[in-house]
Request: fold
Amino acid sequence: MSLEAAFVRLNAAIFALYGVGFILFPEALAGMVTGEIPVTATGLTDMRATYGGMSLGVGIVLFVLTLKRETLRLGVLGVVILMLGMAGGRGVGLVIDGVASQTMVTYLMLELAMAALAFWVLVRSEASNR
Reply:
């Protein structure tokens, strides 16, 4: 398996596991991640859908992109875009809302690191295909 495929599949697994976790255990994970737990059925259902279902879906899409050589580069680019989007949204939140918790700062650092690593994998892949 190529570095690109392994990298995208690692991200796919992280998204998928995060998604399954939030579908099955939204209260526990919400408490760990945000320090808050939704108190209504609507809040829990939305958390299962947004944090759970969407994350699981992203993981599956990333995995599918690794199945063909023609779509692998798109998978790596997808990781770059996803990580920068998450980091950008989190960064805006930290600036506007204030530093919420060490968890949010840690997530921001992980997202930026993963984006940088994904960009490196993308550039490395381009160079080796020339």
User: Anything to note?
Assistant: The mean pLDDT is 94.
